[in-house]
Amino acid sequence: MAVPLGTNIKFAAARNQDGRLELFARGADQALWHIWQVAPNGGWSGWESLGGELTSNPTVGQQLDGRLSIFVRGTNGALYERRQQAPNSGWQNWASLGGEIIGDPVATTAPDGRISIFVRGSNSALYQKRQVAGNSTWADWVSLGGELTSDPVVARNTNGQLELLARGTNSALYQKRQSGANGGWTEWAFLDGVITSYLGLGQNSDGRLEAFARGTDYALYHLWQVAPSGGWSGWFSLGGELTSNPAVARYADGRLAAFVRGSNGAVYESRQLEAGGAWGGWASLGGWIGNNPAVGQFADGRLVIFVQGTNSAPYLKWQVAPNAAWTNWVLLGGVRSGAATAGKSLGGADTSVADAPQAPDEPPMPEAPADAGALPDVAE
User: Under 8 Å CB-to-CB from 364, ≥6 apart: which residues?
Assistant: First the structure.
C-alpha cells in the first residue's frame, strides 16, 4: 500500500555515513515518515513511521560521528530532535530542545562537528541553537535579530564562516555572516530585491555562494558572491514562470542546477553551461506536482529529485549517470510491513498511525494537461 503523506509537504533528504540516502516527510497523520536506500546507489525500503506530531517540515543534520539527527516543530511550538542510535542505524526517542518557533527549522554542521539550528521565533527574529561539542548536548537559544518573512537558508563559506540569507518584511533579501569560523555575527546587510518565494542556495565549484528566488514577475532571479567568502552581485533574471520555491543542487562536474514547478505544474530545470558560468534555458522534466521539488544526491554523484504528485503520492526521478539524462518518474515505495506503530506526539498526547488513511496503490505520476502553458525560455 502507498504511504499516507500529508499535502503540500517538503521532503528532507540526507546521506547516511555509509552513503545510503534517506528521505523524511510529514505524514497525513502528522507523524514523521522515512524511507531509505537498502544499499548505496541502490533501491529503496518501504516507508516507515518515526511517530511524533509535527507542525513543520523536517530538516536533517549530521553528527560528528556520522549519525543523522532530525529536527521538527511540535504541536506546542517547541523544537524537537530525534537522533540515530548509531551511524546507519535505528532511532532514539524524541527530545525537546525548547523554544517557540514558526516555520521550518534549518540545520547545518560546523567544521568542528557541532550542529547549529536556525529558526524564526514567534517574534519573527532569527534564533540559533548549537551543540556545546560534537555529538553532545545543546547550548541555550541565541537571538540573531532581524524580522524575517521566510525561513533562512545557510551555507558555509570557504573561510569557514557561515552565511545566512532571509527575506525581510519589505520582501528584500538580507544577509548575515559569522565574524569568525565559530564566532559572533555581523549585522544584517541589505541585498535588495523584491522576493515572492523562499530562497534556494547553492555553492559553485570555486566556493562562491549563489542564491535564487522568485520575483514579482514570477521569473527566477539569482545573485552570487563576486569572490569566495566575498560580497554579492546584484540580482539577474533567469526567466521562467515559477509556481514554487526553487531547489538548488550541484552536478558531479560542478555545474549548479535549479529546479522549480512551472505554471503548468511540471518540473523544470535550468543548469549552468559550465561550472561557475552562464546559465542555459529551461527544460521540462515532466510530471504534475503539488509541492516544491527537493533534490538529493546519490553516493556516486547522480542527482535525484523528490516530488509529490497532485494525487499526493511521492515520486522520484534520477540521473542515469552523473551529469547525464533523467529517468522517468517512479513511485517511491509503499509502507513497510508492521510500520504503523504508536509514537509519542510532540507537545501533545500519544498518537498512533495504525489507522492512518491510505492512498491508492502505485498511482502513476500525473501529467500536466495538454493545453497548460509551457514555462517560458530563459530571459536574454
Answer: 331
